[in-house]
Amino acid sequence: MTPFGTRLAHAIEERGRFCVGIDPHAALLHEWGLDDDVASLERFALTVVEAVAPVVGIVKPQSAFYERFGSRGIAVLERVVEESRAAGALVLMDAKRGDIGSTSQAYADAYLDPTSPLGCDAVTASPYLGFGSLDPMLEACRRHGGGLFVLALTSNKEGPEVQHARTGDTSVAGTVLAHLRAANAGAEPVGSFGAVVGATIGDTEEDLDVNGPLLVPGFGAQGGTVDDMARIFGRASRWALPSSSRDVLRAGPDVGALRDAARRGNDAVRGLGA
């Protein structure tokens, strides 16, 4: 399988670096004039797929908003994955999974094995049971050409109590970034193992260049700007994937308006890392 990093580099070149979150939370369903039920979930999610998956390089469904409807919600998520990939977009499942041993392997099988109904191009993961707990996911990525985005420096106010904690001269986030740097060593044009780094983290002393992609939530409505990312991320911004959901999704339910919003987001970040 072609490594995820290679496929991502091609997607950025062909379609741009903007990542659209497909997050059908209840407030957005109501903004669209929809009920908070499975039929509305399906209408919302597949309308977004129709609008944005043909024009952006990567989409990011947030699994929790589908899981809350049980098995019927997961069935909708399977269609989001299938139809997004059929339209040419890479699919990053925002599931933030993390466990040990056979359970970690089961998550790898669910999200990174192409024979799985939820098989995606990449998945988000939590390293806070120790980075080695993610080994089954890393191995699945190598075997199937998948990608992994590991939580490193998030923008939520609770994050620093863990991520900024230090052992000697190294922070927890710095340790995660170092592991990713090692996993991506020698990869060209870019590695398949990325970090999740919030657009609104502020200045940091951490080295964010892991020779891998950076998933950057918080762009747009949450306050992150292109200038912020360029300043804070430096050289690492060349593989940054600014992600937004609300700025795009609020343009619905009109397909044309959604597509235009996605294109505007792509245009806004096109020069990042240049």
Characterization of this structure:
This protein has twelve helices and ten strands. The radius of gyration is 17 Å and the shape is globular. By secondary structure, it is α/β, with parallel strands linked by helices. Helix 3 runs parallel beside helix 5 and helix 6 packs parallel to helix 7 (135-144). Strands 1-2-3-4-5-8-9-10 form an eight-stranded parallel β-barrel, surrounded by seven helices. The mean pLDDT is 95. The protein has helices at 4-15, 26-31, 38-52, 64-67, 71-86, 101-112, 135-144, 160-163, 172-183, 226-233, 246-249, 255-268; strands spanning 19-22, 58-61, 90-97, 122-125, 147-153, 166-167, 170-171, 193-197, 214-217, 240-244.
The geometry reads as: globular
Q: What value does the average pLDDT take?
A: 95
Low-confidence stretches: none
Give me the number of helical elements. Answer: 12
Head-to-tail CA distance between termini: 29 Å
Strand order of the main beta sheet, please? 1-2-3-4-5-8-9-10
The Cα radius of gyration reads 17 Å
InterPro entries: Aldolase_TIM, OMPdecase_type-2, OMPdeCOase_dom, RibuloseP-bd_barrel
Domain Orotidine 5'-phosphate decarboxylase: 17-261
Enzyme class: lyase
Active site: 96 (proton donor)
